């Protein structure tokens, strides 16, 4: 089975569904859904949306955890000619309202537990349709009844309203197949939001052609171990993230593999799924690999079906990679990429003799430059510099963000290049080596967290006059978030706990500082610019005095 030629994602998926209707496409909470099942469900979802007034070109926010419902909704929105806007299900009402307002979204598909946040966002956005789903919505009746009877499935209250419809009700509105999606290869299929160095997340518009090509290329990397059409991939990476899409979700619209989804990380459930469904490919951030190695019931499961283990999102500690290979006789292959590059820039190919410490070699679809960030002159081989990336086609702008676009996408030698703001070195064989990241970005549990966003939230507190946020190296989570705060004069009684509570009300969980340190002043340059690098150097010195990084 090979990747179909298609003008858009819905037509690529439908071609695979027509060719192999009985093959398992998605496994969710122990239930298998065939390509024919997904085709029927996504067709009915699209028809239901259109019947309720959704029109081609409109945007729909996907506010769901990893689930078969997510896949049905994502395909259904695109079959209806719309643009999917996936976001993390742990976003608050404030975050949802921002994304819905930024994209002009008219519909949202949400989990029942998030319905309260959605109702809060309705008043300030253009959202007109709300589709609500529970975690077990599309599972067999006996599983739904068991979950209800045993009270083991989290659920939320949903109000009866004209703008609200349950997913099962939506699927029942029309049995007719929707008209073919009018989207062309270079029309936007989805908008993914990424953090980085700005306060608000930035929307990255990704076309059908880009996602089809990038997913196909990155999934083919493991073909030396597993034929792509026979791959069974455990999608521990969230499918609202580019890593989960290009290395997991993409299998159902490129090669016809199988994707195993779970709504949240549960190690025992993950091990059981690997054993039961003979998972061949495992995807995870470095912190997850460490958690698995330290799990006290690991020896109770048979994980021998695994053939390809991949890690992205952060630097893989050599100690974790060594322990994994000793335990499973498998290497962890790593790669580097970003949302703006639609996933991989470089990947580790199993058939290569991969140099120690390398992130892999540059993919054929990408061109890179390693440059001095000031002069934009190319750095010599093996010398560090900022990584620039070009491809054809490529993302060329953020959604509705001209200022951020101008600073992140530049023209050189007649081509558009994306400035990653990451410092790397390149050798003569096109292998890349990670050196450092921009000091404004913190990598926590695989997420890119904007230091300036947290600083802005802290400075909104009436007692705070200045703040500085940095990442403190941590072996388990990559970096922990630490905030340095200067209080206004004569302010008394404000504690670190108070400021963390303030952040919890305004930030999603993974952006909340773990430490607060009060200072009388923060280091600044002669022109008054905050010297975040100086504070980070202080923290590194503290760690070294304690015996090295934890």
Structure in words:
The chain has 550 residues and is of the alpha/beta class. It has 3 domains: 9-328, ANL, N-terminal domain (Rossmann fold), CATH 3.40.50.12780; 356-437, Luciferase, Domain 3 (Luciferase, domain 3, Roll); 441-545, GMP Synthetase, Chain A, domain 3 (2-Layer Sandwich). It has 16 helices and 26 strands. Strands 1, 2, 10, 11, 12, 13, 14, 15, 16, 17, 18, 19, 20 and 21 form a 14-stranded mixed β-sheet that branches. Strand 13 (308-311), helix 12 and strand 14 form a beta-alpha-beta unit.
DSSP strand content: 25-35%
Q: Which fold name fills CATH's third level, the topology of the largest domain?
A: Rossmann fold
What is the correct CATH architecture of the largest domain? Answer: 3-Layer(aba) Sandwich
The low-pLDDT segments are none
The portion of residues assigned to helices is: 25-40%
Question: What is the CATH top level name of the largest domain?
Answer: Alpha Beta
3D shape: globular
Radius of gyration: 23 Å
Query: What average pLDDT do the residues reach?
Result: 90
Largest sheet: 14 strands, mixed
Give a count of the beta strands, DSSP E runs of length 2 or more.
26
What's the name of the CATH homologous superfamily of the largest domain? ANL, N-terminal domain
User: How many angstroms separate the termini?
Assistant: 47 Å
Number of helices: 16
What is the number of domains?
3
Secondary structural class: alpha/beta
Indicate the topology.
Elements: H1 9-19, E1 24-28, E2 31-34, H2 35-51, E3 59-63, H3 68-79, E4 83-86, H4 93-103, E5 107-111, H5 115-122, E6 129-133, H6 141-149, E7 164-166, H7 167-171, E8 188-194, E9 202-207, H8 208-219, E10 232-234, H9 242-246, E11 258-261, H10 267-277, E12 281-284, H11 286-293, E13 308-311, H12 318-328, E14 332-338, E15 343-347, E16 360-362, E17 366-371, E18 385-391, H13 402-408, E19 409-412, E20 415-426, E21 431-437, E22 441-444, E23 447-450, H14 451-459, E24 464-474, E25 478-487, H15 496-504, E26 515-518, H16 532-545
Parallel strand pairs: 1-11, 3-4, 3-5, 5-6, 6-7, 10-11, 10-12, 12-13, 13-14, 25-26
Antiparallel strand pairs: 1-2, 8-9, 14-15, 15-16, 16-21, 17-18, 18-20, 19-20, 20-21, 22-23, 24-25
Helix pairs in contact: 1-2, 2-3, 4-5, 11-12
């Amino acid at each position: 089975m090979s990747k179909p030629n298609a003008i858009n994602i819905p037509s690529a998926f439908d071609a695979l569904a027509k060719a192999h209707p009985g093959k398992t496409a998605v496994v969710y909470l122990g239930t298998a859904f065939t390509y024919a099942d997904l085709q029927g469900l996504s067709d009915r979802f699209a028809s239901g949306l259109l019947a309720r007034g959704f029109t081609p070109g409109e945007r729909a926010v996907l506010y769901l955890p990893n689930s078969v419902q997510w896949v049905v909704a994502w395909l259904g929105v695109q079959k209806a000619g719309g643009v999917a806007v996936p976001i993390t299900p742990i976003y608050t009402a404030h975050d949802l309202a921002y994304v819905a307002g930024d994209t002009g979204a008219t519909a949202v598909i949400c989990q029942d537990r998030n319905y309260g946040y959605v109702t809060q966002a309705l008043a300030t956005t253009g959202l007109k349709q709300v589709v609500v789903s529970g975690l077990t919505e599309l599972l067999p009746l006996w599983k739904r009844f068991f979950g209800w009877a045993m009270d083991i499935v989290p659920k939320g209250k949903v109000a009866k309203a004209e703008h609200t419809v349950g997913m099962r009700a939506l699927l029942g509105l029309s049995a007719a197949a929707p008209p073919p999606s009018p989207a062309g290869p270079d029309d936007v299929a989805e908008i993914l939001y990424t953090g980085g160095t700005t306060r608000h997340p930035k929307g990255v518009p990704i076309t059908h052609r880009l996602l089809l090509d990038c997913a196909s290329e990155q999934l083919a990397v493991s073909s030396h171990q597993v034929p792509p059409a026979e791959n069974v991939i455990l999608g521990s990476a969230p499918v609202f993230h580019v890593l989960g899409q290009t290395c997991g979700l993409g299998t159902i619209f490129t090669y016809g593999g199988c994707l195993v989804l779970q709504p949240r990380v549960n190690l025992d459930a993950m091990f059981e799924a690997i054993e039961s469904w003979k998972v061949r490919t495992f995807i995870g951030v470095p912190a997850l690999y460490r958690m698995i190695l330290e799990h006290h019931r690991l020896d109770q499961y048979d994980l021998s079906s695994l053939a390809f283990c991949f890690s992205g999102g952060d630097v893989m500690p050599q100690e974790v990679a060594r322990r994994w290979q000793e335990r499973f006789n498998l290497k962890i292959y790593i790669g580097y990429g970003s949302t703006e590059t639609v996933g991989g820039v470089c990947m580790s190919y199993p058939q290569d003799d991969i140099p120690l410490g390398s992130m892999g070699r540059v993919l054929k679809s990408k061109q890179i430059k390693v440059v001095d960030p000031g002069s934009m002159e190319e750095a010599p081989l093996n010398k560090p510099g900022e990584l620039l990336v070009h491809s054809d086609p490529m993302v060329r702008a953020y959604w509705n963000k001209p200022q951020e676009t101008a600073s992140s996408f530049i023209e050189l030698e007649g081509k558009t290049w994306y400035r990653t703001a990451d410092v790397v070195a390149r050798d003569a064989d096109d292998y890349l080596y990670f050196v450092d990241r921009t000091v404004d970005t913190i990598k926590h549990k695989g997420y890119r967290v904007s230091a300036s966003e947290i600083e802005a939230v802290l400075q909104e507190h009436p007692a705070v006059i200045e703040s500085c946020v940095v990442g403190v190296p941590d072996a388990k989570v990559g970096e922990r978030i630490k905030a340095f705060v200067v209080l206004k004069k004569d302010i008394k009684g404000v504690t670190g706990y108070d400021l963390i509570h303030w952040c919890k009300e305004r930030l999603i969980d993974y952006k909340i500082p773990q430490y607060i340190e009060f200072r009388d002043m923060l280091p600044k340059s002669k022109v008054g610019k905050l010297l975040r690098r100086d504070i980070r150097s202080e923290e590194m010195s503290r760690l070294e005095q304690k015996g090295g990084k934890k």
